[in-house]
Amino acid sequence: MDLGFSLATYLVLVFTLLYILNVLTSWKKNHIPNFPPGPRCWPLIGNLHLIDLQKPHQTYLELAKKYGPVFSIQMGTKKMVVLAGHETVKEALINNAEEFGERGVLKIFRNMDHGNGIIFSRGENWKAMRRFTLTTLRDFGMGKSTIEEKVVEECTHLTNSFASFKGKPFNNILILNAAVANIIVAILLGDRMDYNDLQFKRLLTLTNENVRLLGSPMVSLFNIFPFITFFPGSHKTIIKNVKELCDFIKRTFVKHLKNLDENDQRSLIDAFLVKQKEESGNPQSYFHNENLTQLVRNLFAAGMETTSTTLRWGILLMIKYPKLQEKVQEEISRVMGSAQPMYSHRGQMPFTNAVVHEIQRFSDIVPLNVGHETTKDVTFKGYFIPKGTYIIPLLTSVLKDMTQFEKADEFYPEHFLDSKGNFIKKEAFMPFSAGRRACAGETLARMELFIFFTSLLQRFTFHFPSGVTDVDMTPVLSITNAPKPHMICALPRF
Fold this sequence. Notes:
Layout: H1 2-29, H2 56-67, E1 70-75, E2 78-83, H3 86-95, E3 102-103, H4 107-113, H5 123-139, H6 145-163, E4 170-171, H7 173-189, H8 198-214, H9 217-224, H10 234-258, H11 268-278, H12 289-320, H13 322-336, H14 350-363, E5 372-373, E6 378-380, E7 383-385, E8 390-393, H15 395-399, H16 442-459, E9 460-463, E10 475-477, E11 481-483, E12 487-492
Parallel strand pairs: 2-8
Antiparallel strand pairs: 1-2, 3-5, 4-12, 5-8, 6-7, 9-12, 10-11
């Protein structure tokens, strides 16, 4: 027995020693000459001990102060490069768009999309899906009066829903989610959904939950150490939610297939199914069912989450700064009175336009951006970055760049106004990212934000319920910066 115990102990020690030596050898070989500087890494965990997993962008901002605008971190054994500040991010994503243009993929997103769809797909698949998406969005009215009519129609449903509370407190999260989601639903499915539709509410809830969980420490650890896939946690809940969303989407496009009229395409799903039939003889075609499923899910989530969250921040900021709310309402009354706000009105409304832009800048919805990857070896800012390196173009460092915005940490609409009160564009305004991987729905999102925001401020004055005086601006951090849930009151103006 003693011999057996000693042998077992000996073997465990040998294998443990061999494992540690293997890790240390790999760690030593991991050295890359002239790689961007960064904090010292530890075996196995890299710089994990330095990173605030709930607010990683804040850690990166602090590291940028020490190591400069191009620095490296290591999460587990994976080396990453962080780009900070407007000038650096612009040079990478715009001036070197090809070199920094691939999508960086984390384990959780690979498990969710399996390389399909548009957000986390890569290479030729991504090119095919992006071309199709941009063409189809334009065909269904993005940037044209036809989509504006849908936004205006949805404004009526949204303002009527707010009015139904008759000035009493309510939570606006699901209502704003539904209103914004309905614009992309109209494009994807060909029709809108009722705010009280139980299936619609379920889809919104699943999407919201996934966005929240994707920023959880457990998911961050899963991305670094995939072997914990066997443990319970947020990463498993996300995949379960994705399956339910995909099952709904598959049922929906089967219905579309049964009623498909190639000469009367009424939705993005119709357009995809027609393209699929056209390429049915091509075994290399990207127009297959898995791409359709993930594309619809990607567009639904992206088309709803960031815009509705920005509107929530807008309402909260108007409550916090009532004098700015009054000034916006004065401009709305002067320019259009009680007429329906349209996107074209923004040229006559410099202050309101500046407020909408400042809401986007200040709310900093996607602080980490979505990861990129280098497509080839590149020398950038004097550093060597190998092909396949995961890149974090830190959007928060652009939107809060003090060299570009006078009061970067404050809500200050004058960032977008000249001395005469005229609206001015800012190159560092990059809430939709930039370059090859910029948001495909940027044009639509800009239109939605302006029309929804001005329509709400035209109809209502927003404030907190009686007795509530503190406006808590602390964000709920996930992969997006979202405001905490608040009960608000919408007092009708007429």
